[in-house]
């Protein structure tokens, strides 16, 4: 799964109607609502939208025939394996009716072209770990963790004998990372994974 790195827009004209897509990352339902409110245009005929956040999603046809606006936008999001994403496609009617199939292609296609052009970030499932090590091993432990692309050091607290690090480890590699840390410090480092 992927998410978007930033907000972007894409515009195209289809049979005299102007379609403008705005897409961006979201981290919650309120963020999705705020994104839609910010990128909807009051002077437009329709502001169709869709967003997905894990298993939770919403979409709206905003006055277009049922299933012709929001659902194709959601399918564009899902078709590119995206999560934590909101898309608003705004239509200014140009006088030519597109029909249901034309609307589906226009809304879904505009959203897909916008999303396809955007920079994406891979979503990595992480678990929290508390790593306790002595001062003599601290530099080595931090260097090895920093060398791993998906590891994030979220906190460091000094204790009487050394330090405790709060680290986000990629779930799929957590066991290997724990073994590596224990091995390079000859067992002096302890790691507690949070459930």
Automatic annotation (TrEMBL):
Report the superkingdom from the record. Answer: Bacteria
This entry carries the following GO cellular component terms, namely: cytoplasm
Which InterPro entries would you find in this protein's record?
EFG_III/V, Impact, Impact_N, Impact_N_sf, Ribosomal_Su5_D2-typ_SF, UPF0029_Impact_C, UPF0029_Impact_CS
Pfam families reported for this sequence: DUF1949, Impact_N
* Ranges of residues in domain UPF0029: 131-188
One GO BP annotation is: regulation of translational initiation
- Which part of the chain is the Impact N-terminal domain? 15-114
Entry GO MF terms:
guanyl ribonucleotide binding; ribonucleoside triphosphate phosphatase activity
Among PROSITE patterns, the record links this protein to: UPF0029
Q: Can you tell me which family this protein belongs to?
A: Belongs to the IMPACT family.
Which named protein is this?
Answer: Uncharacterized YigZ family protein
């Amino acid at each position: 799964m992927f998410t978007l790195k930033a907000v972007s827009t894409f515009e195209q004209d289809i049979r005299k109607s102007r379609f403008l897509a705005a897409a961006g990352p979201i981290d919650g339902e309120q963020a999705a609502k705020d994104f839609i409110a910010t990128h909807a245009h009051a002077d437009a005929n329709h502001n169709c939208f869709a967003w997905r956040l894990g298993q939770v999603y919403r979409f709206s046809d905003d006055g277009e025939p049922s299933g012709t606006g929001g659902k194709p936008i959601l399918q564009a999001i899902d078709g590119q394996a995206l999560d934590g994403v909101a898309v608003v496609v705004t239509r200014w009617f140009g006088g030519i009716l597109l029909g249901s199939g034309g609307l589906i292609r226009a809304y879904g296609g505009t959203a897909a072209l916008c999303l396809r052009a955007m920079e994406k970030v891979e979503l990595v499932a992480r678990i929290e770990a508390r790593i306790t090590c002595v001062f003599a091993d601290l530099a080595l432990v931090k260097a090895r963790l920093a060398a791993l692309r998906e590891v994030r050091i979220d906190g460091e607290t000094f204790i009487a004998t050394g330090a405790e690090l709060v680290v986000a480890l990629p779930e799929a590699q957590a066991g290997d990372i724990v073994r590596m840390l224990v091995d390079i410090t000859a067992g002096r480092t302890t790691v507690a994974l949070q459930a």
